[in-house]
Amino acid sequence: MKTNIKQNNWLNQTQAKLISSITGMMVFTASLLHAQDPVTFTDDFEGPALNPFWSTVLVSGTITFPSSAQVHSGTQSLQVNSITTAENKWIRLRHTFNQPQYGQVSIWVYDSGADLVSGNYISLNLMNDTLGKYLSIGTMDYDLGPDNGGHYYYHAWDSQQPVNTPIDRTRAWHQFAIIANQNSVALFIDGQNIYNGPGGIPFETIEFNVFGPSWRPAMTVYFDDFKFSSVVAKDITTFTDDFEGPTLNPFWSKVEIAGTISFPSTAQVHSGTQAVQFNSTYGTGEKGITLRHNFNTPQYGQVSIWVYDSGADLVSGNYISVQLRNDTLEKYLAIGTQDYDLGPDNGGHYYYHAWDSQQGVNTPIDRTRAWHQFTLIANQNYASLYVDNQNIYNGPGGIPFESIKINITGPTWRPAMTVYFDDFTFSSAFPELSMRISQVEISWNSITNKTYKIQYRSEVTSNVWTDLFGPIMGSGTRNFVMDAVIPGQPRKFYRVIELP
Length: 500
Ligand SMILES: [Ca+2]
Ligand SMILES: [Ca+2]
Prior knowledge:
- By secondary structure, this protein is mainly beta.
- Helix content is 0%, strand content 56%.
- It is built from no helices and 38 strands.
- The strands form seven sheets. Strands 4, 6, 7, 9, 14, 15, 16 and 18 form an eight-stranded antiparallel sheet that branches. Strands 19, 21, 22, 24, 29, 30, 31 and 33 form an eight-stranded antiparallel sheet that branches.
- The N and C termini lie close together (6 Å).
- One calcium ion (CA) is lined by residues 242-244, 269-272, 274-275, 422.
């Protein structure tokens, strides 16, 4: 008996992504046989041991974990201690991905070196090791005033040297956030945008660190609340809700403060026989009635919803707002109303809020007590807003949204109000294509008058050889059989046996 074992080894299901760029050009990338990276990873440093996501390099320094000396969230953070030795200080926490990434990365840093004439460098870096390029937000190893180490610095993909920012260092918690896209890069400190520039370089490694020459003093720095999310769509890519179901779709989570959500409601509908009804109450505290959806990963895409504006022409009402939110950066894109309608320049028109708006901006579109459609588009290259298909805003993009929020709000003293929403749509700018191998072909050179049997083994058969096909008569040529590939099955071995 002769056996011939062939291994069919697919580590993971084939991954393919279809990415459409703004020019309408389609770029198709597919990669086989690579290990999966996490799509999101957060670390609030509350565990008993450092998460194995991180690898460490400790030269002239140590890590104290967990540390409770300074925390941004919970009761723990990560403490980095540099030490004075003959060597330069170099304490790094890093994660290297299997595949280069686009995405959003943020961390909170307790800047112990603020206002010290001599300290250590602190930085958050996204690195493309292959190209020797990096994006970085950080500090100098001294603070000698606003123009000389007293502010935070950044380094863009193509910077020749660190660039000073307007943001003063203080001995407190600060958030460093980096969004690295295919088309753009945006850097933020405490939610303030400090840099926008070209993208197109993915990062292979995330690193945060404390370093400095040997002669700089020992320093203790704290890090907390790290967040990474890939910008690749792993969520649903489209979702529509005409609010015609028997219960509210679990896509939505509800918040009902000084009010309620009635579902289904038939009092006012835009389509079918049902809508969702928001009811605020008077005098029971600040109103906050919300439907929300949190995505697993930040999104680019388009959202629209129909709103029945019950507050139009009322001198006192509630705010109505539809928002795409980047909760990490505490930024949002929104269309909505004021909580009063006192004429065209004073609450009588619809308002919008762009990613970088300081306050709501008036539009030319009059409020009426009727159904109106709000449409919000947040892309890598632009953001656009529409009311009833009329374009009310175009501006820079580059900030993905992590959640959708639909709400009515208002202070205690504003009256109770009832507002209706209907016909919601969401579509991702990254329609995800997926590819998998559904069948394998097994073939062997056969001899006339011989019979063969095909067997396989896998984890499913506890690695025992099991008959698949046969006996099959040899044809004197190459024989072929097909076998289905079951989704999620990691590995299967085949062999052909020549029967005696
Ligand atoms: Ca914490
Ligand atoms: Ca409906």
